[in-house]
Structure formats: structure tokens, C-alpha cells
Automatic annotation (TrEMBL):
GO biological process, alphabetically ordered: modification-dependent protein catabolic process; proteasomal protein catabolic process; protein pupylation
GO terms assigned for molecular function: proteasome binding; protein tag activity
Polar residues compositional bias, start-end: 1-28
Family to which the UniProt record says this protein belongs: Belongs to the prokaryotic ubiquitin-like protein family.
Pathway: Protein degradation; proteasomal Pup-dependent pathway
Protein name, UniProt field: Prokaryotic ubiquitin-like protein Pup
Domain of life assignment: Bacteria
Length: 61
């Protein structure tokens, strides 16, 4: 099937826009994950012993 040069350019631009949008969403997700991990790290620095003890089984749990 023959497509015109203009159609190919439009197709390529659409693919570039999709790739850019996906890259932006990926970067945002990584940033959100980093924020969550920073919160966890800060919490553990403050009360690591309490955090670990919350996983210790007590009396047959």
C-alpha cells in the first residue's frame, strides 16, 4: 500500500507524541515512587524499632 510522504510524516509525529506522553507519564510515576520511598525511609529513621516490632508475631498470631 502506497502512502504519501505527508501521511508518513503525520504517522511519525503521532508516534513521537505518544512516546513523549508515555515518557512524561513514566517520569511522573518514578517521581511519585521516589516520594513514597522517601516517606518510608524518613519513617524508618524515626522509629525503626517500632516498625520492626509491628511484624513480630505475638502469642500464636
Amino acid at each position: 500500500m502506497y502512502t504519501s510522504h505527508q501521511e508518513n510524516n503525520e504517522f511519525n509525529m503521532d508516534n513521537e507524541q505518544i512516546a513523549t506522553q508515555g515518557s512524561d507519564q513514566f517520569s511522573e510515576a518514578i517521581s511519585d515512587l521516589d516520594s513514597v520511598l522517601d516517606d518510608i525511609e524518613a519513617s524508618l529513621e524515626e522509629n525503626a524499632e517500632e516498625y520492626v516490632n509491628s511484624f513480630v508475631q505475638k502469642g500464636g498470631q
